[in-house]
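Appendix B. Chain record.
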Amino acid sequence: MSHHPAAKRFLTAITLGTIFGFVCLYLASRGHHEIESLSHPIFWIILTDRILIGMVVAFAGAFTVHPLLGFKYRPCLRGACLGAVVSLPIAPGIFVNPPTGGPMSPWLIFWGTLAAGAIYGAIIDIVATRVGGEGDKLLAVQEK
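Structure tokens predicted for this chain:
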């Protein structure tokens, strides 16, 4: 395994994204056991979305200042914003085929999906920053 900070950050973020993908699958499948099937499209949508959060957060670690607004971008805020944005494409999917008879409304699931993405993104960014760093440290070229 490479000891480059960017590699550590990337591997940490992808691993956490995968773990959170399975956490999300567990939560989504409670009461809807068909989601647990590897052949169910929602299984893959949820899992790949959470892994994508890890990838985006890993790459975004190079930015310590918001690229448009110019303020210092703390890992918690950076990760939360990116996690919510990456979750945005899957959240409206609940309205395509809303669950019937369950205790949760489609709007609650929609907002819960975005909130979970924000929480996962924040945790991923905080941990990945502690493990691999952020900013210029990630962009430095290591000599062999």
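Further analysis of this model is presented in Appendix C.
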